[in-house]
Amino acid sequence: xxxxxxxxxxxxxxxxxxxxxxxxxxxxxxxxxxxxxxxxxxxxxxxxxxxxxxxxxxxxxxxxxxxxxxxxxxxxxxxxxxxxxxxxxxxxxxxxxxxxxxxxxxxxxxxxxxxxxxxxxxxxxxxxxxxxxxxxxxxxxxxxxxxxxxxxxxxxxxxxxxxxxxxxxxxxxxxxxxxxxxxxxxxxxxxxxxxxxxxxxxxxxxxxxxxxxxxxxxxxxxxxxxxxxxxxxxxxxxxxxxxxxxxxxxxxxxxxxxxxxxxxxxxxxxxxxxxxxxxxxxxxxxxxxxxxxxxxxxxxxxxxxxxxxxxxxxxxxxxxxxxxxxxxxxxxxxxxxxxxxxxxxxxxxxxxxxxxxxxxxxxxxxxxxxxxxxxxxxxxxxxxxxxxxxxxxxxxxxxxxxxxxxxxxxxxxxxxxxxxxxxxxxxxxxxxxxxxxxxxxxxxxxxxxxxxxxxxxxxxxxxxxxxxxxxxxxxxxxxxxxxxxxxxxxxxxxxxxxxxxxxxxxxxxxxxxxxxxxxxxxxxxxxxxxxxxxxxxxxxxxxxxxxxxxxxxxxxxxxxxxxxxxxxxxxxxxxxxxxxxxxxxxxxxxxxxxxxxxxxxxxxxxxxxxxxxxxxxxxxxxxxxxxxxxxxxx
Length: 634
Ligand code: ADP
Ligand code: MG
Known about the structure:
- By secondary structure, the chain is an alpha+beta fold.
- The protein has 22 helices and 22 strands.
- The radius of gyration is 32 Å and the shape is elongated.
- About 40% of the residues are buried.
- Bound molecules: adenosine-5'-diphosphate and magnesium ion.
- Adenosine-5'-diphosphate (ADP) binds next to α2 and α5.
């Protein structure tokens, strides 16, 4: 509504009830449909696609404020229907309510052209296959004149809001409006790679996307790197089919600008869908970082109402919970497989096995696993952070790792295979030496050394692997805790000597109020007095972490939540805090066996590519890159 129409006189004389003039109704409707030039682009391209166009050209002047012209090669509008096209609630797309419910087209309200005609100078130029030439209809004068044009339609919308100055004032600079127009075009282009688009601004071609495969269109529109920094999504969950690509955390952005979701082919901006997707990233995306994705959701038209809002960007689902979960699971499944496991030339089966409920080391028995075995090739569980921590209290251990005497008191799953794979039984010990310099077949390779107390270097078939050991180990521990938590509770290990410690009143109150959850987390705390707690057991996975520090962090997290909500709200935060306590610290010297055990654990851990904060945990430097560094031709 315009500012003028809101003017109020002091003693309004009562006026008789009248129907609003059509022109005014259209202007009101226009306020909902047409906000800025980009809305015009959106509606006109919708219409062109509905008319079956395969080539669409958008011409803009002054960011679209002076002119938006959309030309298509669709079916065209018969000359006798041209005037109807501009009438409100005139549409060729639906004739009945059942049809409205089953509508598969982009636009269906019969409002857009009428709305635009009420707030802009407008003309339609169209030709169908049945006429030898085109006709041009001037919206203002209603004048119909013959014109030259190939089959298809051009719609011109000039001087937007010329007759509603208050609205025109809300427009931003031309370059801002242009950016919005380009974004509107992008949304269409990503949804319809089979249609070619060209966009001109003031006589210059600014964007051009030839018809292409979906992946090629994604590259064209979002940049070539989106491809390599995203994973394919393709999941049928309940009544929904969800496909497209989800960006890895490395492709995350500071803004939500690369988030595209389509429901039955229509671009939507929907909180429920966005939230479902966001929750798939919650463990791997840091703070305010925004995931990049292009996802297409298809479901039966009767399960979704697209008629909620005039701009058709909002939708309502019949079963919103189902939709939310489906989005989450589809994206999670795409992101979860560790990149290490997905290395194309690795022989290891995909990690989806663990999703099928097979034991995590079942794949070790596969026949394509190399038949030679070396200590690092055995599946050496980095069972507990305990083992890594143990070393901090026995500094000689690192150098004496190969002798068993000094380490007898420490649980050491690193130095001996937990199980000799049966396929190796006939090979004998001599092959151990022989394979020392063979290229290891493990995706993350064989550990070579530690650098700066922070990085582990390893060699695999592709070249050099560099691992951030704290980040990687934190992820491994976190996933293990999550696993235990979802099964029932974290395995708990009683302390030999219970540890009393001074506590704040809040800590004491929290320990009392949330004893059940603490126990499920593997922490047994008893109240010794108003300012004293005793720690009696710790999670077994974190047995060697500083138990009191761990308990304090967990109490601090728990204090923020009401007991009844902790499970839903805080579990991931809690487990991630605990994992951080349990992960090996920087500057810890690791033995080769420990490093190898970490690599093997990463290979079998879902999402091992990113630490809990979304930073990468490892990088590959290929032989080719190494050769290039040293100008070595091959
Ligand atoms: P709706 O798209 O909801 O039907 P519009 O006001 O956008 O309403 O368009 C009115 C009618 O004009 C459409 O139903 C269609 O028949 C016709 N029309 C509009 N644009 C085009 C086009 N580019 N090609 C062919 N027909 C068109
Ligand atoms: Mg329309």
